[in-house]
Amino acid sequence: MVSTRALLSSVSMVVPAADPLSPEPPLPGPWLERTFAPGAALLAQGDVPTAVYEIRSGWVLLSSFLPDGRRQVVDFCLPGSIIGLQHPPRGTSEQSAQTLTRVAAAALPVSILGSALLTNPLLAIGLAQRVAAGQERARALLVSLGRRTARERVAHLLLDLFVRVRLRVPACAGEEIPLPLTQEHLADAVGLSPKHVNRMLRLLREHGVVALHGRTLRVLDHDRLLDEAGVAEYPVRLARAG
Amino acid sequence: MVSTRALLSSVSMVVPAADPLSPEPPLPGPWLERTFAPGAALLAQGDVPTAVYEIRSGWVLLSSFLPDGRRQVVDFCLPGSIIGLQHPPRGTSEQSAQTLTRVAAAALPVSILGSALLTNPLLAIGLAQRVAAGQERARALLVSLGRRTARERVAHLLLDLFVRVRLRVPACAGEEIPLPLTQEHLADAVGLSPKHVNRMLRLLREHGVVALHGRTLRVLDHDRLLDEAGVAEYPVRLARAG
DNA sequence: CGGGGGGTTGAGCACGGTCAAGGGTAGTGG
DNA sequence: CCACTACCCTTGACCGTGCTCAACCCCCCG
Description:
The structure is a homodimer of 242-residue chains. With 242 residues, chain A is of the alpha+beta class. Chain A folds into 2 domains: 4-19 and 149-229, Orthogonal Bundle (Arc Repressor Mutant, subunit A), CATH 1.10.10; 32-138, Jelly Rolls (Sandwich), CATH 2.60.120. Chain A is 38% helix and 21% strand. The first copy, chain A, is built from 7 helices and 11 strands. In chain A, strand 4 (60-65) and strand 5 (71-77) form a beta hairpin. In chain A, helix 5 (183-190) packs across helix 6 (194-206). The N and C termini of chain A lie far apart (42 Å). Mean pLDDT of chain A is 87; it is low at 10-21 and 233-242. At the A-B interface, strand 4, strand 5, strand 7, helix 3 and helix 5 of A face strand 4, strand 5, strand 7, helix 3 and helix 5 of B. Chain A binds a DNA duplex (30 and 30 nucleotides) through helix 6.
């Protein structure tokens, strides 16, 4: 079994980090500190965001709803994540953001965002980097939903969350992390039914890979987890012509 | 049947555009013009990008490969899209980029990217916006892969591509657009097998929705297409507590 | 004329969804 | 302190969407 530290570096492809093993520094700019209770809505699908948030602590769930109520979780926002930066700039949001825990966030009203960006190049650069990180997470999840089996999907998501929490949440060490999610949240993230997620969790537990009890995730065997998640040395198959 | 112009505005949620009905202006900065033949590789998975590209004309396919060869297309890059902006900044790419047509692109070597960003705030802001647009596309695709049926997925992708080409490629008008893709490309984008994509295309054709012949896509009935894609007025179901 | 890449179609199967029922636990109020 | 309740987790049996395998066709290009 590899060590947690070795795991963190070996799977950097899963969670690209600007500065591995340390939280990202806050972005410069005239931010306002705010806090939210668990279950609070930072943003609703269809609304025009009034502020951009940088998460400082806690978990935020980003999800999209179809007209008939089907939900897809598109991101788990941890400290360092940016919420509310739209395209087009003053357009409506395609996602809802709700807190899963108590959350501390820095807010930048969109009314002053433009001038802040122009006067503070480091803010613009930092935002571009953070959004690029979010795009990377979305694309990694796309690979799972499109081309991995159910079992690989939940293994990969748990590995991803484990690594991200260990990187982003300072107080976390050891093989256990808190995971403030229900199985329904997980199901809506990996595109499965809650029942089937439950089955896959049981398999992973019975095979001694990971155990998810209460609201804590315990990694039992890092090697097995990497294997189950389908993370390996680089796929050297290059892009084919055509 | 709604008009194409009405379609373009009614589905702005599918393809967020900074300035609907007109191509995005080139970003400022010391860009170098380059061209690529069809099938060229701009970037290979696992490599460290040497330049950031802004696509000026043509199609570029962005895809990720699993170790066993499974492929997932994560973006179709059209004029205005940014390629090669990584997170972390000097890290390896998780995707391969290959051209599908002859492509004109503007290149900015990463060696001068940092100074260009610092001296040109509009470049940094523009990059952040373009990356945000790419993130939005990735998240929209996530919703399809996670929560739509096979038929909805291909209808939604065809609608999305139709609208994006009409917005981004100036020479395109009418109900037909060129689509330089094989059914295998479509399959790798929507997470289905090529055979099943073929079946769904047949259904959509038989129902008079869209027809894909040769390398051109023809929209037969815009209303039906919106309906099949599961695009509707806003899902007013708000985020639930917890 | 031959070859190859892509498109088309059908038959059978399996992965994952649906339906149904039960159990554990934490919070709440009597 | 002890129901009561609501939420979440768990498990099993059955079913359907979408995958696999196999064959054939068509068109373009050599």
